[in-house]
Amino acid sequence: MSRRIRVGYQSDSGFSLAELLVAMAIFGVIMAIVMGFFASATRASRENAAIGTNTESASNGMNEISRILRASTENPVINQAIDSPAFVSAGTGNEIVTIYAYVNLSSAAEQPVKVQFSLDSNRNLIETRWAGTPITAGYWSFTSGVPTTRTLAGAVITRTGTNPYLFTYRAKDGTPIPVPTAGFTDADLRTIASIQVTIAIGATSTATTAIVTLQNTVGLPNLDIARTL
Q1: Cα gap 179→194, rounded to integer Å
Q2: pTM (predicted TM-score)
Q3: Are 88 and 184 in contact (CB under 8 A)?
């Protein structure tokens, strides 16, 4: 009686070229999807971080400007029947304003300060402050002493088209007051009843996804100008 033994045949040829190409193609598609998702997540994270930073910067600038503007006040002058207007100057492309205000957090004594908000060459929002020096009872000078300067916000976007200015001056009825070519006169400065402040912060004017814009119309309660907004 004979017994047959069947030996199985095993091929050592491995994957065919076609199988290898298909596997590589599938792997490439999967990697492209994963990398695309990772790139999108990274970009969104950067944009969110930039928006958060720009929002904080714009808020700091807006809060300080609003606080000073609300405290703006006229400045009495010796031997002058009419006080100097609260606004020392306003103009230069609607990106600079200088005012008198009764805001002083560095001293317990009530004394006025002269404050200027402007943009430097890098478009950082700068606050420059002059402390008042008493001349006699109720009168102050702001010509002596070294002013203090600090940066409130950075990278203020350049205004384009019909976008609002950094500072828009408004009359008591809310209408905008255009800045004359020669600048405001004292009479013009006395008609300003409120200021619309628009702060747009961003790295560049083209990176619109990270630009943060804050706008606030600040009344001037100390100037006794009845607004009809």
Answers
A1: 14
A2: 0.76
A3: no
**Using CA atoms in the order 30, 31, 35, 38, what is the torsion angle rounded to 10 degrees?**
60
- Closest to 134 in 3D by CA, of 150, 118, 113: 113
At residue 35 the predicted structure's pLDDT band, cuts being 50, 70 and 90, is confident
49's tokens: 């971080």
2: burial class by Cβ within 10 Å (0-12, 13-18, 19+)? exposed
- Would you state the structure tokens that stand for residue 155, as one six-digit string? 């990278």
Residue holding tokens 């001056």? 169
How many Å apart are CA 223 and CA 69, to the nearest integer? 11
- CA-nearest of 130, 127, 160 to 143 is 130
pLDDT band at 205 (very low <50, low <70, confident <90, very high): very low
Closest-CA residue to 68 (of 107, 112, 110):
112
CA–CA distance, 52 with 202 (Å, rounded to integer): 11
* Residue 79 burial by Cβ neighbours in a 10 Å radius (0-12, 13-18, 19+): exposed
183-188 long-range Cβ contacts below 8 angstroms, 24+ apart? 183/89, 183/91, 184/87, 184/89, 184/90, 184/91, 186/84, 186/85
Q: Per residue in 110-138, is it b (16+ CB within 10 Å) or e — as a string?
A: eebbbbbbbbeeebbbbbebbbbeeeeee
Q: Looking at the chain, list the stretches that DSSP marks H as alpha helix, in order from N- to C-terminal side.
A: 17-70, 186-189
190 contact partners, CB below 8 Å, separation of at least 6: 85
What is the identity of the amino acid at 4? R
- What local confidence, expressed as pLDDT, does residue 79 receive? 85
